[in-house]
Amino acid sequence: MLLDTFGGTADAAWRPAPPGAGANRLATGLGDVIGRTVEAFERRLLAGSAISVDHTGADVLLFPVRGGVRCRIDCRDHAPHAEGGLELRLRAGEIVYAPAGHGCTLSGANAPCLLLLLVLRATP
Q1: Which of 117, 119, 121, 118 is nearest to 43 (CA)?
Q2: Does the pTM of the predicted model rise above 0.90?
Q3: pLDDT digits 0-9 by tens, 16-69
Q4: Using alpha carbons only, what angle is made at residue 4 by residues 16 and 53, rounded to the nearest 5 degrees?
Q5: CB-side exposure of 70: number of CA atoms within 13 Å?
Q6: What is the DSSP code (8-state) at residue 9?
Q7: Rounded to an integer, what distance in angstroms lies between the CA atom of residue 71 and that of residue 58?
Q8: What gap in Å lies between CA 2 and CA 104, rounded to an integer?
């Protein structure tokens, strides 16, 4: 189970999902299917705060598990918010894919948001 409690404080950084958690089973199953190492991380984001997702050299899948958040994806070769980026609103149960070499900024949560991040490594 992803985070048994959902407190009122934000996490300072992404933390690995606990061993045996559903998030780790999901990561392992996906890794088996695609033949890549997949790692699961989780984080709480408070309303009004913003964070960057930076896993250089890895593709990522981002899931809001609870709540919703604005997501901005930009190519690292261009200035943030330059033309050509993608901005969308993610709600619980939706997913976004950010390929390696692209930055992702999360903001605009109206209430505390629980996030799951799957990092797809290039080699096992």
Answers
A1: 117
A2: no
A3: 998 888 999 999 999 999 999 999 999 999 988 888 887 778 999 999 999 999
A4: 35
A5: 11
A6: S
A7: 18
A8: 22
Question: What is the residue type of 79?
Answer: A
Residue 76: both structure tokens together: 């690292």
Residue boundaries of the structural domains of the chain = 16-120
CB neighbourhood size of 99 (10 A): 11
Which two three-digit tokens encode residue 34?
């695609």
Distance from C-alpha of 20 to C-alpha of 121, rounded to nearest angstrom: 20
Query: Two tokens at 12?
Result: 């300072």
Residue with tokens 């709480």: 44
**Among 101, 98, 105, which residue's Cα sits nearest to residue 69?**
105
| Whether domain 16-120 has CATH 3.40.50.720 | no
Which 3 state secondary structure label does DSSP give 63?
A: strand
For strand 51-53 and strand 102-107, is the pairing parallel, antiparallel, or unpaired?
A: antiparallel
Type of residue numbered 12: A
Position 92, amino acid: A
